[in-house]
Design brief:
Structural class: alpha+beta
CATH class: Alpha Beta
Helix content: 25-40%
Radius of gyration: 15 Å
Distance between the termini: 40 Å
Number of strands: 4
Oligomer: single chain
Number of domains: 1
CATH superfamily: VSR Endonuclease
Order of helices and strands: HEEEHEH
Largest sheet: 4 strands, mixed
Strand content: 15-25%
CATH topology: Endonuclease, Chain A
Strand order of the largest sheet: 1-2-3-4
């Protein structure tokens, strides 16, 4: 697992490029909540929008999530812990006034960018 990318994955980079092409400016891999050691992939600080680009395997995508057959009990515990952490992060962000947008790696980049752009503009961001 140490060789798995946690930053700058292909789906994340594709989404960032599309958002930048549309004139949206953002910050990358930021800790937005004090005392919480979790980074958000793409952050729009002004409108307080956090975009989490999730891998289908690591975050147990409801559509594509699967578990290896080898060491199944260990993987079940690992994936359940990942889901718990994701839920906790979402709850904390919401409580702090942030809007979390989850983008799954299987999503079409332009459609995901459409969702992000709508929320960012709805929360008051302006394009330079």
């Amino acid at each position: 697992m140490q060789f798995q990318r946690s930053k700058d994955t292909a789906p994340e980079v594709a989404l960032r490029r599309e958002l930048f092409r549309r004139g949206l400016r953002y910050r990358l891999h930021r800790r937005v909540l004090p005392g919480l050691r979790r980074e958000i992939d793409i952050v729009f600080p002004g409108p307080r929008v956090a975009v989490d680009v999730r891998g289908c395997f690591w975050h147990s995508c409801p559509r594509h999530g699967s578990l290896p057959k080898h060491k199944r009990a260990w993987w079940e515990a690992k994936m359940e812990a990942n889901k718990r952490r994701d839920r906790d992060t979402a709850t904390r962000l919401r409580a702090a006034g942030w809007k979390l947008i989850v983008v799954w790696e299987h999503e079409h980049t332009e459609r995901a960018a459409d969702r992000v752009e709508r929320v960012v503009h709805a929360r008051g961001a302006t394009v330079p």
